[in-house]
């Protein structure tokens, strides 16, 4: 309570935000876990309306919402903005993503709703988009990049995909002269090709490392490979092959490095990769305290 008061949230507004938070927790659990497709979607629509109402509360930017486990909330390290992202599973096992960018105005609410345009983006790695044509994902890490011609922030995100494959993404966000968010920037350089964002696809039953190591200024990730020659060109069969690649920050650009020797990389303390809420719930249930 004292901490919130120090952040400018009055006791009355704090009480209101706590009420909104409890509603968001219940609705989030429903759109993640309910077996009925329509119930999930209805819960999500209610969630969006409730979140917008909550963010209209004075000084809501300083309220963490960290107990709403169904969503990811990440603040820019310079506190300029924060991003809310989450997903709802469709009946066919695919995903639709939702989110908003909330600016730190110190006053009235200024936010940019994120509209998932993924199915319409035929070449996402070559596209620069705005918040209305967002390449949806659920972000778990934000990295500020102040040097170079285009100051930007890098976002690491989980994208889900279909019943057979999963995607992860390295995204960028910057802001134009009007203060509006821009997603994608020509800053990822690999094998004489520059990409606006990087998209990985792999088998749904596999797990993929995608992590930022600040001490080295690198984004390290598993090298994905097919299980056999017949599966070349079928990313839904790909999985880690026990080698690692990376993007290293140099003069504002992220340059691809192959076959990284992880023995020479300091262990990062940053372990907060995105965990699928359903899988996390199962894991939590399995961690029953021992009687001994």
What does this structure look like?
The protein has 292 residues and is α+β, with helices and mostly antiparallel strands. The protein has 4 helices and 15 strands. The strands form 3 sheets. The protein has a 6-stranded mixed sheet, with no helix packed on it. Strands 5, 6, 7, 8 and 11 form a 5-stranded antiparallel sheet that branches. A 4-stranded antiparallel sheet has the order 1-2-3-4, covered by helices on one side. Strand 14 and strand 15 form a beta hairpin. The two termini are 37 Å apart. The C terminus is likely disordered.
Radius of gyration: 20 Å
Stretches with pLDDT under 50, minimum 5 residues: 280-292
Q: Roughly what fraction of the amino acids lie in strands?
A: 25-35%
What's the total count of β strands? 15
Count of helical segments?
Answer: 4
Write the layout of secondary structure elements.
Blueprint: H1 2-6, H2 11-33, H3 37-55, E1 72-75, E2 81-89, E3 95-103, E4 111-115, E5 138-145, E6 152-161, E7 165-175, E8 181-183, E9 188-190, E10 193-195, E11 198-203, E12 210-213, E13 218-225, E14 239-250, E15 253-257, H4 277-286
Parallel strand pairs: 9-15
Antiparallel strand pairs: 1-2, 2-3, 3-4, 5-6, 6-7, 7-8, 7-11, 9-10, 12-13, 13-14, 14-15
